[in-house]
Design goal:
Strand content: under 5%
Order of helices and strands: HHHHHHHHHHHH
Structural class: mainly alpha
Distance between the termini: 107 Å
């Protein structure tokens, strides 16, 4: 019995392969389309893609073109060919603005762009592009079933940009230890705090800004030191007001005491 079942399955498999090979070789576009749909429904997206790719030019302007282009785009998505999926879905949306698949295609195209976004340490052009596409989808379909997922993807991409900006600002502070230019990290952290007011890194950003102001003041030439020490105090007070219970507070207090000690020299001279 088991041997009999094995023979049946083998014959079915060979028959399936034979039909696919025949469809690949035939010049009949209807046969290719039909076999492509069959392969698509069976989850064999690479085979379906090859068949669809061969007939896309022949179906331009035909009634079946809309369905073909949707399935063709979807095969790239299922194969995780994100660049081609994003491109083909974008073409589909432009070509068939009245399609019943428009909403889904718009979302899958934007999600494909999301999957192209690199890790935060790399250049973020693709991340910004994906954000634009997802936001366009959200604006166009505020009641969409895909809206919760779209919002979550936007949140993840926003955080990627936030992390990138924070790490760059931190790098300015680290470099300043060698160059002595602490004005750059102060400005970088101010920009970060302004651009990401709800950031999880906000507390650390305020501390690094104060730390940079402290180092700028302590290492200043004499004629600028008093002014910069007083500026550092304003950064300290801002940090303390917002994060009095911070893990960085003890270190900040020590720096503040040193600043006060330095300022005493100017008070004594006066």
């Amino acid at each position: 019995m088991r041997k009999f079942l094995y023979i049946i399955l083998t014959c079915t498999f060979l028959s399936s392969c034979s039909e696919y090979q025949k469809a690949l070789k035939t010049t009949d576009i209807g046969t290719k389309f039909k076999e492509g749909e069959k392969q698509y429904d069976a989850g064999k997206f690479e085979k379906a893609n090859k068949l669809f790719a061969a007939i896309v030019p022949s179906y331009r302007g035909k009634p079946q073109a809309e369905k073909l282009m949707y399935l063709y785009s979807k095969t790239f998505y299922e194969m995780e060919e994100w660049y081609l999926a994003s491109y083909q879905f974008e073409r589909f949306v432009g070509a068939y603005p009245n399609s019943e698949k428009l909403e889904e295609a718009s979302f899958l195209g934007a999600k494909s762009a999301y999957n192209l976004a690199p890790v935060y340490t790399k250049e973020q052009h693709e991340t910004r592009d994906a954000l634009d596409k997802l936001q366009a989808f959200i604006n166009a379909y505020p009641q969409s079933e895909y809206l919760p997922e779209a919002n979550q993807l936007v949140k993840e991409l926003d955080f990627k940009l936030e992390r990138k900006a924070f790490e760059i600002a931190k790098q300015y502070n680290a470099i300043a230890g060698y160059t002595g230019d602490y004005t750059a990290p102060i400005k970088a952290m101010e920009d970060f705090i302004f651009n990401f007011p709800a950031s999880k890194y906000r507390e650390e950003a305020f501390f690094i800004k104060f730390d940079s102001a402290y180092n700028l003041a302590i290492n200043s030439v004499l004629y600028k030191r008093q002014e910069r020490l007083e500026e550092a105090i304003t950064h300290y007070l801002t940090f303390k007001k917002s994060y009095s219970g911070s893990e960085y507070m003890e270190e900040a207090n020590q720096m503040y005491e040193e600043i006060q000690s330095e300022l005493q020299n100017y008070t004594t001279k006066s």
